[in-house]
Fold this sequence. Notes:
The protein is of the alpha/beta class. 25% of the residues lie in helices and 16% in strands. It has a seven-stranded mixed sheet with strand order 5-4-25-24-23-6-7, with helices on one face. Strands 29-33-30-32-31-36 form a six-stranded mixed barrel. α5 (124-134) packs parallel to α17 (614-624) and α21 (732-741) runs antiparallel to α22 (752-761).
Amino acid sequence: MEHEQRTQQESLEVKTTTCYMCACRCGIRVHLRDGEVRYIDGNPNHPLNQGVICAKGSSGIMKQYSPARLTQPLMRKPGTERGAAQFEPVSWDQVFSLLEKRLAHLRATDPKQFALFTGRDQMQALTGLFAKQFGTPNYAAHGGFCSANMAAGMIYTIGGSFWEFGGPDLDQAKLFLMIGTAEDHHSNPLKIAISKFKRAGGRFIAINPVRTGYAAIADEWVPIRPGTDGALFMALIHELIEQDAYDHEFVARYTNAGELVDMAVGSDTFGLFVQDSGSPELNSMYAQNRMWWDAKTGKAVLQHTPGAEPALDGRYTLEDGTPVAPSFALLRERAAACTPEWAASITGIAADTIRRIAGEMIQTSRQHKIELPIRWTDSWGVMHETVRGNPVAFHAMRGLAAHSNGFQTIRALSVLMSMLGTIDTPGGFRHKSPYPRAVPPSAKPPKSPDEVKPDTPLPSGPLGWPAAPEDLFIDEQGTPVRIDKAFSWEFPLAVHGLMHSLITNAWRGDPYPIDTLMIFMANMAWNSSMNTVEVRKMLADKREDGEYKIPFLVVCDAFQSEMTAFADLILPDTTYLERHDVMSMLDRPISEFDGPADSVRVPVVPPTGQCKPFQEVLVELAGRLKLPAFTTSEGKPKYRDYPDFIVNYETAPNSGIGFLIGWRGKNGDKSLVGEPNPNQWEQYAKNDCFHHYVLPETFQYMRNCNGPYLKWAVENGLRKFDQPIVIQLYSDVMQKFRLAAQGKTRGRQPPDHLRARIDRYFDPLPFWYEPLESGVTDLQEFPLTAITQRPMAMYHSWDSQNAWLRQIHSENYLFVNPKVAAQSGIADGGWIYVESPWGKVRCMARYSEAVEPGTVWTWNAIGKAAGAWNLGPDANESQRGFLLNHLITDELPAENGQARLSNSDPITGQAGWFDVRVRIYPAQADEAGTSLPQFAPMVPMPGSINVVTRMVQTYFAGRGEFAARLRRAVKNK
């Protein structure tokens, strides 16, 4: 009877919002009882995950009630050292007063003394706007150490990229190749798509050094040596050309294959596309007057001249005597030597297997062509009665990106996909709004230190897409202006910045010291650093005068991490269930192939303790600092809070373009563009927190050169120009940098010690080269490549403190091929040492047939420092788990007396996480039992909810009084 009465009195409620247990952004339903989160499941009405939920998503309840929660602002105690985690509570008034005074001084004197770097956040449009308005160039997010190569390599080639910007059309594909993709990438949508694809009879080939996750259900696993994928792609390109099996119509009409390249070796325009002087450029950024050699008339003509047929081979001479060649002829010459036998010696994949894979692509393209009865008009005025596709789909991610040769590898993959005719076609790669972008996108970084001025916003965002040396962010001597050296001659196309170089450069004062560093949601003292032990020392290192080399460190996070121990000021963020948030078309939307879509988060429970969303912190600070975009003409804050900012902010006065595309206009009856709607949040909440705009069928394909679509995209704020986005098989952007390195052009020149580097790597055609770290490592002494993968059940270090998910992964092993292990005398489950030229760890080994013999691997971020994340000092994560980062270097040894360079892709600055080489050997019997290295245990911070720590860590009992106990525990701290 008592139970029945209590049940009748309980308040049961279901609220919808958007998950944040990884970056997938699925729709979820949160079930509450008396205001306490009781259950989370997938929202069946959501277009992204259609009700499917993963282990991470359903375990969000344990993130909400985690003992690692930060619950109040904290200042490092006077007289204590960074890293000791000795803090005292402060009020938010004190926080804002301190930050306002300190940041206002920096903004009025030298804005670049303030650096704002964020981790795996989904609000880069806001954080980037804050940095721009503040006037600091020192801003970036996680991309530089995650997947900058993927974004840059594809966008500089086809105008779009994998993940939220595009992906494989598995509903219509017949052959699917997944390369270098861990099992958490686009998790639920990809699982849904692969399941349907397999049930429909599609063939799935996984190419990866490791067979886990998605690859476990592939029809074929093709093990490949890490960092050699570019050689495989070049061999596949070779086979398509050798067998004359590429899509001739697509290549000729929609790529720059037929555009003529200046072949006058001594010319300062050598390697650039020639232009028809008698035709207008139309757009100086994306010239429309390039030329073809017309195979019908035997002369040079303006590209896409009606009736012309571009030659794709041969050498020709223009009327003025300039020798020229179609760019495809140069690609043909490059690929001629890239035989399957050549690739086999690099990749470890048999030449016959490479030929067979190429044959499967060719056969699928020829025998399963798709032709949809959709009439569309291309950018040159030609109407097409159907949309055609060759149903060969690809998906790739960080396994390709996280190498110092990743940009050219991903360029090679993009060229391969284009030659198959699979760009924005049915069954191939499909763009997602707002992509495709121009190649490269029109947004450019600042170009001079003169653009960094006191009390003045930057003229453009701190990040961008350089198209030539003139777009670099350097001074007159060629010195980088940014603290991470992005957009300098060291890393010209560093479109996402180099977060992994931030601490080292700031500590060293190279190119200059900074005063205040604000870090949001990035564990730079642990798994977000390539040289973890050294970074921890740098964060605590002092100058001769006793001041820290990085004087003031602000960390904003929802949890106690290895990083928070080093903070001077801690700002407690909310969880995703406690705040408003947007997945914006200005940033990282959830668009589908058939049209733009965005989503929001709305609070389903109140903030814990004194937690405040970082978005609110930025909006408040921006108003206090009187940043123009956040301030009225009278100097007052323009927005009362973050939700008000999202509703009323417009990218330009009266543009009608804001962060959200749904329910715009005063009455909420417009999509994409319209006046601010005061009820916009409420209408998103009523619609399960998303908005999906479905494009007309005629706009859903061939968007690179779909004339009516491109005009529509300009009218609706998705693009700046309606010129066609021609696929760049040959990149004249790269050639412009190479010409500068060769001293053949006027204007900006690289420093002498970087000329050879630029000349080698800025090749306008894709090519494979050995990862840079291999060139400075004795490969006989360190014969194995070590890589990490993220497990399906965890996402970075966020989730390895989650009580439910810890039951799946509370410790990690180094997985070794049994033959290799046996050769080294390593037992299955035995303790071993793993050593690189840069460090050594002790860990447990496991045999695995699902790893190629030259590779060892482990799960990422399972290992923890003792006491971090409010885990017990004897928790498995710190005692039996380990972190591979201890073996990785952030810089490569200096050459010829020059300064050390970041261990990164020389084009984009992407961190070379997966290039490290190691050796393994057994630990002695008396050394077994504990992983190394070990660190002094962290102590719990003020506000920790230790009263319920043990219960939460072991089992969430499901009693209705749990939330009340939690609230009392926080209140009494």
